[in-house]
Amino acid sequence: MFKFGFGQDVGIDLGTATVIVYVKGKGIVLREPSVVAVDSNSGDVLAVGGEARRMLGRTPGNIIATRPLREGVISDYTVTEKMIKYCINKVCGKFVFSPRIMICIPSQVKKKKKKAVIDAAMQAGARKVFLIEEPIAAAIGAGIDIAKPCGNMVVDIGGGTTDIAVISLGGSVVNSSLKVAGDKFDEAIVKYIKKKHNIAIGERTAEDLKVNIGCVYPKIQDVEMDIRGRDLLTGLPKTITIHSSEMLEALIEPAMMIVDAVHGVLERTPPELAADISDKGIYMTGGGCLIDGLDRLLQEKTGINVMIAQDTVSCVALGTGKALENLDVLEGKR
């Protein structure tokens, strides 16, 4: 049956690790890993999301399983366009008129990269594209009233970037974006296991370690996990046991880079807003902030209370959804 009228309003959190789609009036309707499997001979998309993620590191020569977004920005324009198209078709169906789309981007993204996101969404079938900065969307999604004239600090740790912003009166007063987030934590684990144990492991094993026993603050009780990798001396598969104390060694360096960046933003914050943040605390959002002990580490180093937002992984998408309610106002301003 054909659907008539205008297309739906769709919000997309186009994350380096996960794509989350919000449809106005329905809430979050799609959550898929940002992975696309493409046939290199024909250019056809074979799988998107979870199905494609299972292919990472396990594909024959003619199939490439790739992550089209790196460090919060588009690294493969064509594949990103196909991924957005897949998401639109999946949530809207093929018979709806083009939707208006709002997409989250890291703060401090250059004009050229912003244009690439808009172009990819337009090519994928959007009628009109709006962009919203991730820390603003994260703050809205965390339930912060950003319209008030008082300072709120948000630290959004995603897959590719960490966005830090001090928000007042609906906009960023001071912000910073650094390319240290979930992916960098995974890379740190891969390097550490290779250096200490002479074992090569893949991205997925590193992520499992991070999720299950990863920490950036000493645990009361050391926990362990068995992993399989390739012994670099013999070239054969080998099973080893990794402890959370080793994860602390592996992850503390990228964690301190985030802490230092937060410190840098606080130093540039106007005194009145800094006083507000000191009273209210720092809000952490994004999947990356779930690493055990990151909130305690940040609290210890800054002396400011740190809170992890509810439904932290979906915060940005939920904020985008709430911002969708004001699309008509935004369109009126243009």
Task: Characterise the protein shown here.
The chain has 334 residues and is of the alpha+beta class. It folds into three domains: 9-33 and 71-136 and 316-333, ATPase, nucleotide binding domain (Nucleotidyltransferase, domain 5); 144-180 and 253-310, Nucleotidyltransferase, domain 5 (2-Layer Sandwich); 182-250, Actin, Chain A, domain 4. 39% of the residues lie in helices and 28% in strands. The protein has eleven helices and 18 strands. The chain has a five-stranded mixed sheet, with helices on both faces. Helix 2 crosses helix 3 and helix 5 packs across helix 6 (203-213). The two termini are 34 Å apart. The model is unreliable at 1-6 (pLDDT under 50).
Question: How would the blueprint of this fold be written?
Answer:
Elements (H helix, E strand, L loop, with lengths): L8 E6 L3 E6 L3 E7 L2 E4 L5 E4 L1 H4 L9 E4 L2 E2 L2 E2 L2 H16 L7 E6 L5 H13 L4 E6 H8 L10 E6 L4 E7 L2 E8 L3 H16 L1 E2 L2 H11 L10 E8 L5 E7 H25 L2 H10 L1 E4 L8 H9 L3 E3 L6 H10 L2 H7 L1
Parallel strand pairs: 1-9, 9-10, 11-17, 17-18
Antiparallel strand pairs: 1-2, 2-3, 4-5, 4-6, 7-8, 11-12, 12-13, 14-15, 15-16
Helix pairs in contact: 2-3, 4-10, 5-6, 5-7, 7-9
